[in-house]
């Protein structure tokens, strides 16, 4: 797999939107210096930080990582046909970290529904900075266990357990177990 230059891609998209680093930081509600640090590859963003920044640009993670992905009208998908939304992000990180892999089924925008196959290695965490976005999401834990926090609610979910909440609630996903956790989730409208 080729290395993906997160900083260069972010700068390219910011400039295409005719935004300064400061304007993007304000639109994303992140510190101005964070945009500069990411664009110069002096810092690798967490998944939650990158989502916030891309929200300020009005683009999804899928559009960020796969700008030339062909639009498909496919109905059925094999595992190798899922869109990998985060593998390239984590290829830029240094040192051992819990890895999160998010794979999307088909064209989420075309259906106004995002279905993800999520893998969380032990210790993986969406980040201390809680996620918040205008949609609704739910999922089923397929294997392992994962701690889900949504607003004031927090639970450790095991295989067969599920969740459903308004995504405007600050939320976080953490694998606090010692084996991989697998989740199948849906979000509408699509967020990534």
Query: By CATH's scheme, which homologous superfamily of the largest domain applies?
Result: Jelly Rolls
Percent of residues in beta strands: 25-35%
Order of helices and strands: HHHHHEHEHEEEEEEE
Q: What's the CATH class label of the largest domain? A: Mainly Beta
Can you tell me the number of structural domains? 2
Which stretches are low in confidence, meaning pLDDT under 50 for 5 or more residues running? 92-96
Mean pLDDT: 86
| CATH fold naming of the largest domain | Jelly Rolls
CATH architecture assignment of the largest domain: Sandwich
Radius of gyration: 16 Å
Largest sheet composition: 6 strands, antiparallel
Distance between the termini: 21 Å
- Output the structural class: alpha+beta
Shape: globular
Number of beta-strand segments: 9
Count of DSSP helices? 7
Multimerization status = single chain
Strand arrangement, largest sheet?
Answer: 1-2-3-9-4-7
- Helix percentage range: 25-40%
GO molecular function, one term: DNA binding
Keywords: DNA-binding
GO cellular component, one term: cytosol
Protein name: Cupin domain-containing protein
């Amino acid at each position: 797999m080729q290395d993906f230059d997160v900083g260069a891609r972010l700068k390219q998209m910011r400039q295409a939107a005719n935004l300064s680093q400061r304007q993007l930081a304000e639109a994303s509600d992140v510190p101005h210096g964070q945009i500069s640090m990411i664009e110069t590859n002096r810092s690798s963003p967490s998944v939650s930080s990158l989502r916030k920044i891309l929200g300020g640009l009005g683009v999804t993670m899928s559009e960020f990582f796969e700008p030339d992905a062909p639009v498909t009208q496919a109905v059925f998908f094999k595992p190798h046909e899922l869109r990998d939304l985060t593998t390239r992000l984590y290829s830029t990180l240094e040192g051992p970290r819990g890895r999160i892999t998010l794979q999307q089924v088909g064209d989420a925008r075309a259906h106004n529904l995002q279905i993800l196959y999520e893998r969380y290695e032990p210790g993986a965490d969406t980040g201390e900075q809680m996620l918040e976005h205008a949609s609704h999401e739910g999922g089923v834990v397929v294997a392992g266990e994962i701690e889900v926090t949504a607003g004031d609610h927090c639970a450790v979910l095991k295989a067969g357990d599920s969740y459903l909440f308004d995504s405007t609630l600050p939320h976080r996903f953490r694998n606090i177990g010692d084996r991989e956790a697998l989740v199948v989730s849906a979000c509408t409208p699509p967020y990534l």
